[in-house]
């Protein structure tokens, strides 16, 4: 399935140079910088309001290896509001709450759920 369905709500700013692939909804007030990559591989991605997605950020929605053969489910990656994704971080988390900061060059794996008000430190790797 290589269908792109990009929805950008009023007030959001998405730079033309960003790379968006799959079924993605971007909330009002969210800013997506140039060279940011958002890939909805396993199912839709819904990004909340007032998020900041900086340069070279990679947000990838993919299933954990042990769930790839399960049928009848299309998981949705919901990213809450007021999240900051700093330069060159990679986030594959299946669920992200509100008011989180993903600092530069951090990595969050696809088995990690991030709740509310968390900070993942610069260069830290969280695989779960």
TrEMBL record:
Protein name listed in UniProt: Dynactin subunit 6
Molecular function terms from GO: dynein complex binding
Native organism: Aromia moschata
Organism placement in taxonomy: Eukaryota, Metazoa, Ecdysozoa, Arthropoda, Hexapoda
GO biological process, one term: mitotic spindle organization
InterPro entries: DCTN6 (IPR027777), Trimer_LpxA-like_sf (IPR011004)
Primary location class: cytoplasm
Keyword field contains Chloroplast: no
Intracellular or extracellular location(s): Cytoplasm, Cytoskeleton
């Amino acid at each position: 399935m290589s269908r792109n369905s990009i929805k950008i709500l009023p007030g959001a700013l998405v730079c033309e140079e960003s790379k968006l692939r799959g079924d993605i909804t971007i909330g009002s007030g969210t800013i997506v910088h140039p060279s940011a990559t958002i890939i909805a591989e396993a199912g839709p991605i819904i990004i909340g309001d007032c998020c900041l997605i900086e340069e070279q950020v990679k947000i990838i929605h993919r299933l954990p290896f042990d769930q790839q053969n399960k049928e009848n489910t299309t998981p949705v990656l919901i990213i809450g509001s007021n999240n900051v994704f700093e330069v060159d971080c990679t986030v594959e988390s299946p669920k992200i709450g509100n008011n989180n900061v993903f600092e530069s060059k951090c990595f969050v794996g696809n088995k990690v759920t991030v709740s509310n008000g968390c900070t993942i430190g610069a260069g830290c790797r969280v695989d779960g």
